[in-house]
Automatic annotation (TrEMBL):
One Pfam entry name: ABC_tran
Highest taxon above the source species: Bacteria
InterPro entries listed in its UniProt record: AAA+_ATPase, ABC_transporter-like_ATP-bd, ABC_transporter-like_CS, P-loop_NTPase
Membership in a protein family: Belongs to the ABC transporter superfamily.
Molecular-function annotations in GO: ATP binding; ATP hydrolysis activity
Keywords, ordered alphabetically: ATP-binding, Nucleotide-binding, Transport
Residue runs in coiled coils: none
Protein name: ABC-2 type transport system ATP-binding protein
Location of region: Disordered: 329-353
Signal peptide range: none
Record domain ABC transporter: where: 15-246
């Protein structure tokens, strides 16, 4: 009799970070704790959002993961292998764009990618594939210096895609883009995930994470404050309160009295009464109809990610967005050098013409 062995071990996560700590030290000023025991898990095939207010440690985490900065403590695994130790053997499987990309301004996108492809032994047909993937093919023969920020960002993503990685790490990929550019970038990322790629995407745009990501990690002050499926997190924070609308203010007052006597918390005024603590919206309707009070409307207040974020991090977004810190306004010790902040897969550092 043959025995079939079924391996029930779950596949290891693509990224696993445990207890990551990083403190930037300075001779003249007190140091900055950028990461204070951060945990993160990203599974295969997910688009995972990495969401946090300014200075919460997103870029630091990504740089450490890619071996561009050293951690003080913590454990990291990518595709089950310890990093940074195993990064050389994993480099073909990881593509990344961290911070602002820079390119030779007088080179075209096609030439830029062709030179990069040549250095890693890839044929020019791959250049055409990535140009198509990021939607730059029509403008590929223009010098990069005439490119918008969004086009440069797409060129950076194209360069990260050349080696057809299994994992793509993007730090604020839609930063500075207009709504059309954001939509195109989102569609491109979705397409990559549909082809089986795992994506880790940091963002300030709450709506972006809500629209794009399956799962997310929310970070505040260098620590994870929540993680899981985006829809589950939003649902878990959806408030139990409902707003009932009555025919007029007098009916509103009657309804408020009935609901208060039933032990529910009431706020609002006139014909709009906010009720919390009810078992369900139907229970509110029933209580009122039993007293002959008829509703003209009932709405449940759904939490959006913005509300969730505010509750968890105590940081208020402005117009759904966390404003970027202008690093030039920071004291020198809190600023990183351009070389440190603008690491990416580029042909040139500071050679823009
Ligand atoms: N090279 C550096 N030297 C000193 N402090 C730094 C350096 N890089 C980052 N920091 C500090 O570490 C903390 C985390 O910064 P980090 O850039 O990782 O945050 P972030 O979440 O990416 O922020 P942002 O949303 O502004 O991009 C901040 O307080 C920042 O000022
Ligand atoms: Mg950052």
């Amino acid at each position: 009799m043959s025995v079939t062995h079924v391996d029930t071990t779950p596949p290891s996560p693509v990224i696993e970070i445990t207890g990551l700590r990083k403190r930037y030290r300075s001779i003249r000023r007190p140091g900055t704790t950028a990461l204070d025991g951060l945990d993160m898990v990203v599974h295969r095939g997910q688009i995972h959002g990495f969401l946090g207010p300014n200075g919460s440690g997103k870029t630091t985490t990504l740089r450490i993961l890619l071996g561009l900065a050293a951690a003080d403590h913590g454990r990291m695994r990518v595709f089950g292998r310890p990093v940074p130790q195993c990064l050389p053997e994993l480099s073909d499987r990881i593509g990344a764009v961290v911070e602002s990309p820079r390119f030779f301004g007088s080179f075209t996108a096609r030439l830029t990618l062709s030179l990069l492809a040549g250095t890693i032994g890839l044929p020019d047909v791959r250049v055409e594939e990535v140009l198509t993937a990021v939607g730059l093919r029509d403008r590929a023969d223009e010098p990069v210096k005439g490119y918008s920020l969004g086009m440069r960002q797409r060129l950076a993503v194209a360069s990260a895609l050349l080696k057809d990685p299994d994992l793509l790490i993007l730090d604020e990929p839609t930063n500075g883009m207009d709504p059309a550019g954001i939509r195109e970038m989102r569609e491109m990322m979705r397409g990559l995930a549909a082809d089986g790629m795992t994506l880790l995407v940091s963002s300030h745009l709450l709506s972006e994470v809500e629209q794009l990501c399956d799962t997310m990690t929310i970070v505040s002050r260098g620590r994870r404050v929540t993680h899981g499926r985006v829809a589950d997190i939003v649902a878990a924070h959806t408030s139990d309160s409902v707003t009932v609308t009555l025919a007029d203010a007098a009916e509103g007052a009657r309804a408020a009295e009935v609901l208060r006597r039933a032990g529910l918390a009431i706020s609002g005024r006139a014909e709009r009464v906010e009720v919390s603590g009810a078992e369900s919206p139907a229970a509110v309707t029933r209580l009122l109809s039993d007293k002959g009070i008829h509703l003209s409307g009932l709405t449940r207040q759904a939490a959006d990610l913005e509300t969730v974020f505010l509750r968890l991090t105590g940081t208020a977004p402005v117009d759904g967005r966390y404003p970027q810190i202008d690093h030039s306004l920071l004291p020198p010790a809190a600023r990183s050098t351009p070389d440190e902040r603008e690491l990416t897969v580029t042909v040139s550092e500071g050679a823009e013409s």
